[in-house]
């Protein structure tokens, strides 16, 4: 999976059911892997010390994703990437949030919308002086 990856930081990722080895080979140098999960690969390891690569806090375990089939290489937006109760990815990221796309300060939004997304603003067209303005905002986000 890592081909010609040099001097990079790879952190808080889930590598699930990928083909090939996740371990960087000796052609990849100077990479640092922090708090990643690898599962269901031909080689469930992150090489530590080979080619100047280092690995800390990585987990070899099923990330317990809600609905991502084990027998597909294609991404479909109906898959549910949320973590199930007991997932080793929960709060295990380098920053204390979840490992994977549901973690970090800007979690992945499968609809591709910026967070928060204002869906509607409902307010009167005319406001009378001295009367409180009633505004209802409907927004979507995490």
Number of strands: 10
Radius of gyration over C-alpha positions, nearest whole angstrom: 21 Å
Kindly name the structural category. mainly beta
Largest sheet data: 3 strands, parallel
Mean pLDDT: 79
Gap between N and C termini, in Å? 31 Å
Q: What string gives the helices and strands in order?
A: EEEEEEEEEE
Low-pLDDT stretches are: none
Tally of individual helices: 0
Net shape: elongated
**Domain module tally:** 1
Helix % is under 10%
- Spatially, the strands of the biggest sheet line up as 1-3-5
Give the amount of beta strand, in percent. 15-25%
Task: Provide a short characterization of the protein structure.
It is built from no helices and 10 strands. By secondary structure, the protein is mostly beta strands.
How would you portray this structure in words?
This protein has 142 residues and is mainly beta. The chain has one domain (1-112). It has strands spanning 9-11, 14-16, 32-34, 37-39, 54-56, 59-60, 65-67, 80-83, 117-122, 136-140.
Features:
single chain, 142 residues, mainly beta, three-stranded parallel sheet, 0% helix, elongated
What is the topology?
Elements: E1 9-11, E2 14-16, E3 32-34, E4 37-39, E5 54-56, E6 59-60, E7 65-67, E8 80-83, E9 117-122, E10 136-140
Parallel strand pairs: 1-3, 2-4, 3-5, 4-6
Antiparallel strand pairs: 7-8, 9-10
